[in-house]
Amino acid sequence: MCGICGCSNLTGKFSPLSSKVDLLTSHHHSHEQHTPAENARLVQVELDLLNKNNTYATENRSYFEKNNIFVLNLVSSPGAGKTTLLVETIKALKDKFPIAVIEGDQQTENDANRIRATGAKALQINTGRMCHLDAHGIGQAVQNLGVQANSFLAIENVGNLVCPSSFDLGEAHKVVVLSVTEGEDKPLKYPDMFHAADLMIITKIDLLPYVDFDVERCEEFARKVNPKIKILKLSTTKGNNFSSWTDWLESKIKP
Ligand SMILES: Nc1nc2c(ncn2[C@@H]2O[C@H](COP(=O)(O)OP(=O)(O)OP(=O)(O)O)[C@@H](O)[C@H]2O)c(=O)[nH]1
Ligand SMILES: [Mg+2]
Fold first, then answer.
1. 79 C-beta closer than 6 A to ligand 1
2. Could you give phi then psi for residue 246, rounded to 5 degrees?
3. Does 139 fall in a domain?
4. Contacts of 168 (CB under 8 A, 6+ apart)
5. Of 77, 84, 91, 210, which is best to mutate to test ligand 1, by the most ligand atoms within 8 angstroms of its C-beta?
6. Domain total of the chain
7. Is the CB of 80 under 6 A from ligand 1?
8. Is residue 29 part of a domain?
9. pLDDT tens digits, 170-211
10. Model pTM?
11. Looking at residue 42, which CATH number applies to its domain?
12. Does the beta carbon of 206 sit less than 6 angstroms from any atom of ligand 1?
């Protein structure tokens, strides 16, 4: 995880006026060789960080359960199609139950603005040098956004196939989005993420005629890493099989 690089060594600054969170760091480091004692201390720092995160995640999860908020944590490489998927999901389901979105990106409020354009509530967290969202930030964001009881909350994590896998946010499920332009080998190369996810969505299947992407092998690789993973294949922009996703979502949400 990224604690080794010091990216977790940050403080969060929350700005209610801009409905935006900035995580700032003054921490600089070099990648010089560490002594065994320093390495042991770094490992301990990582463990402490994850334990602290897990405590906040447990608090979030019990809040979500108490208020019947169904929460998904969407993870992927940058550009796999998470925001596009959420925009179309909101358009399809917004009359059935309330939907809110927490967006995580290193910089900009672009994704939150795309979500707000649908009429849904969105809050942007800018993580700065941090490459994932954490449970403490999510707890704050949920309160600031005023996420309703009996609703669906989508968390779009920072585009990164490594670090978000280690950080529980209190979600019901991690959903890993993999687009067909990325190559079918990703489950084997980034196994932690595919192991942590309960659902894999293979997106942009409208592009299959133009790219060398072996869908069957991709499914085989994902199941090798995580035999229980559920897999959907769809195109958000062309609509192919999109209802498999909205049907799955509707089956999970009891408003
Ligand atoms: N052909 C095709 N393009 C898609 C599909 N879904 C998304 N895209 C395109 O992929 C690009 C990236 O989509 P985004 O939704 O911004 O991806 P993202 O995962 O949210 O990106 P980050 O937040 O930067 O990690 C955009 O140009 C989308 O129009 C799809 O199903 N088919
Ligand atoms: Mg996005």
1. yes
2. -70, -35
3. yes
4. 53, 54, 57, 135
5. 84
6. 1
7. yes
8. no
9. 999 999 999 999 999 999 999 999 999 999 999 999 999 999
10. 0.89
11. 3.40.50.300
12. yes
